[in-house]
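Case study 2.
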Amino acid sequence: MKQALQPLKLAIMLAIGIGIGILLAPSRSSGGNRISQILQLIRSNYVDTINTDALEKTTITNLLHSLDPHSNYFTALEAAHVNEPLEGGFEGIGIEFLLLEDTIYIAQVIDDGPSAKAGLKGGDKIVNVDGQALTGMNLSNEDVFKLLKGKEGSSVALGVCRAMEPKILNFKVNRGHVVIKSIDGYFMADPETGYIKISRFAANTMDEYGIAFTAMREQGMKNLILDLRDNGGGYLNTAQKLADEFLQSEAKILTTKGEHTGIETFSATSKGEFEKGKLIVLVNENSASASEILSGALQDNDRALIVGRRTFGKGLVQNSFSLKDGSAVRLTISRYYTPTGRSIQRPYNHGFDQYEDDYRARFKQGELFVEDSIKNNTNLVYTTVAGRRVYGGGGIVPDVFVALDSTRNSKLMGCLLEKNMLREVAYTYFDTHRSDLTKYSSVKEFQNGFQIPPALITQLKSTAANSGVEWDESDFIKSKAEIEKHLKANIAKQLFKSNGLLYIENFDDNTFLKALNCLKSNLYFEKMKF
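Prediction:
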């Protein structure tokens, strides 16, 4: 289940929660101490009524953040939500939803999930749950989770509005295990080039990667574009296994060092399926943790060309310790170093708030738009296997820089994304034009043949007006191409699942197109190992 966020807001959210864990090892909490004694004094003697749970959370969180920005505390509910994407699933009904004015809007039904088996479709609007109308409830995402998730085998009754259907449709959905995929999709970008988008490094990533890789190799894949943009991390061992797919036997992948963990070095085995062939890794400022482990290993070994913008800069490894009440502490236990010995952890000695404000700082100093604005630490220079210069101390600097494209964005575009209007209008259009759209047998045919009709823009304007969004015509002209791309991509998602959305988005994306151009030029790969 996902929701779209305005780009800047998304970047900040990613910066806050980035690096979503490395290893999970339960542990019991310790006994009494000064902190617990002080909290007990407050409970017993403070002048006003207080929220004890909130106070404890604030105290523990501040304590952990005083150590480093990535040691953190999660309540039992938060810990469950954070672990689900890494473990690859949860118990529920299996939909991706948007929450629009007290209506649960089904953006996509997960393949082979409980909702798909019950007959629900993308575009359906859930208007009541177990006979309870949702109107006027002022729902939050947490409310939706509580309504729809539950133990495997339990059931929930849903009342659904569907386009072209005059009455509410009733469905009984038996909850079950829902798989959360860590690979958003894959496709052949040209007859010899495959593309895979990895959103996180989870327990099921390697199985998903194997399916995607095999399918594209059977279609003639000789080159591969691996998209790690906005990938906040995940399990270290998954990143290690994926690196092994591309590196020759005994090539170093990373080293970890910690006061209590000692020093451990990880190297490639002879198991790799793509040790030869042109490889490009796409990264941006939200690529972090395990994404940087993989990117750093491939860059230091001169195995891949890194394309995009400087990565987040997280070189710390966390372990998750479970407490008795189901809450969890995620504690930094070691630092990791790329094969050349560099730590890419950016400094955090100026406090937690400044550390989290890094995205705004990069934006302000122009780093996202001009390559020369990247401030490399010249005191931390390292040399790759082939003799190329790389830097430590602040993320992975790409071999080929691609600026953030801000020319298509506007205040209007930000509002439409934040309120999910582009997805809502696209899904409604799909729902009312299913029969016409099924004539497209492939996403490539859809890309070449479908044009956004003027009536769809008119509908978008009407939806914006009804939601109180000011429609500035000059803003619309500035972002018209971007608005139409998002509408078209979301219609493609309904026709061809996530692969359709990725295909439409990428063939109008500067970083992806730059990667394709790099593959055509031997200049970029002269020092690479193929």
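The two ends are 40 Å apart (CA to CA).
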